[in-house]
Amino acid sequence: MTAHTKEKLHGDLPSASSKAASADRKELAAIAFERTRMPMVVTDARKPDLPIVLANKAFLELTGYEAREILGRNCRFLQGPATSPIAVAEIRAAIAEEREITVEILNYKSSGEQFWNRLHLSPIHGDDGRILYFFGSQIDMTEYRRIEALEASEHRLLMEVDHRSKNVLAIVDSIVRLSNAEDPALYAAAIQHRVQALARAHSLLAARRWTSISLEELIRQQVAPFAATRAFFSGPDLKMPAPVVQPLALVLHELAVNAAHHGALATAQGRLSISWKPGPSGAGFNIRWQEVGAPTPPKLAKRGFGTVIVGAMVEKQLQGRLEKTWSEEGLLIDIEVPAASSTSA
User: Fold this and answer.
1) 221-272: per-residue pLDDT in tens?
2) In this structure, is the dihedral angle defined by the CA atoms of residues 34, 36, 37 and 43, taken in order, positive or negative?
3) What class does this enzyme belong to in the EC scheme (predicted)?
């Protein structure tokens, strides 16, 4: 710095200082600049490309560069492939307009390691108002960003767990309310088996990391225990989102139990055929449950509790539609699950 420059540039007065400190304020300022743990750098605004003329120890430690590697260079050497051009444009605009700016920018150390830099730039003008220097301070935000990302991820996870828990509890509530409570022993057994069906579906979801589940895999899981050799499955590879799996698992469980106790699987010659296909325009899916050899129920037969549960799951939980018809061959049930509940593979 020349004597001519010193006459034009006067530092800001301290916000609080004693007489003794005021007398030494220039030396104290130099000591504070070098010893502070905050990385700082000064560039010369009167020279082309704003070269670095001052940098403190903290700046060298943060960036990993040596003094000889940075003096006389523009600070853009801290930029890299993933540095946001928008952040760079903001900095350039602030420099051109000679105003202060604070911006978070992804920078690179000498080793190539990335770090998030909260950069604050401040212009330094001479007594005549002309720009002389730019002062820059940096705060390494990398760890803060990592913790912030972890907290956001944890929050999303908790929200998802809360949503899933509410969904499962709503299904369990339906099981408890709709199960036949006339006989305590049968009531307990019915609830136990229905909750076990949910648990099997939950295990399937956990094994697939709560992503889309194969419709065929779920059907076979719930039906095979009741019809290992007399059930026939056919349909394309369709995937369901996680929220559909547990309500549909309970529907399939109820239909299989009914077929085993009162339907086609209760007779020696009865058989069960389950097919599925995409819904209209490939959205959602339809399941056709066909029991051949099922005894025809009395015309005035009362709706069973399993039928009530199936209806509640399909219409309320899945927002779908169920149609049941009887023919000379047996029972035919068509289940339609809308597009909002499923996806194709």
Assistant:
1) 999 888 767 889 999 999 988 888 888 998 998 899 888 888 888 888 888 9
2) negative
3) transferase
Task: Report the C-alpha gap between 163 and 156 in whole angstroms.
Answer: 10
Contacts 24+ apart (CB under 8 A), 120-125: 121/91, 121/94, 121/95, 123/45, 123/98, 123/99, 124/9, 124/42, 124/45, 125/98
Rounded to two decimals, what is the model's pTM?
0.50
Question: Please, what is the average pLDDT of the chain?
Answer: 82
Q: For residues 146 and 116, what is the distance between their CA atoms, to the nearest angstrom? A: 10
Cα-based torsion angle of the residue sequence 254, 257, 263, 268 in order, rounded to the nearest 10 degrees? 160
- Of 192, 196, 244, the C-alpha closest to 218 is 244
* CB contact at 8 A, 174 and 313: yes
Rounded Cα–Cα distance for residues 26 and 19 (Å):
13
Residue 22 has pLDDT above 80, yes or no: no
Look at the block and give the residue holding tokens 């809360």.
162
The domains of the chain, with CATH numbers, are 3-140 (3.30.450.20), 163-344 (3.30.565.10)
> DSSP for 224-272?
TTT-TTTEEEE---EEE-HHHHHHHHHHHHHHHHHHHHTSGGGSTT-EE
- 132 CB-near residues (< 8 Å, 6+ apart): 5, 8, 9, 44, 45, 46, 124, 125, 126
111 phi/psi in degrees, rounded to 5: -75, -10
Cα torsion angle, 216, 314, 244, 179, sign = negative
Q: Read off the pLDDT of residues 265-302 as tens digits, 9 standing for 90 and up.
A: 888 888 899 999 998 877 889 999 999 987 776 565 55
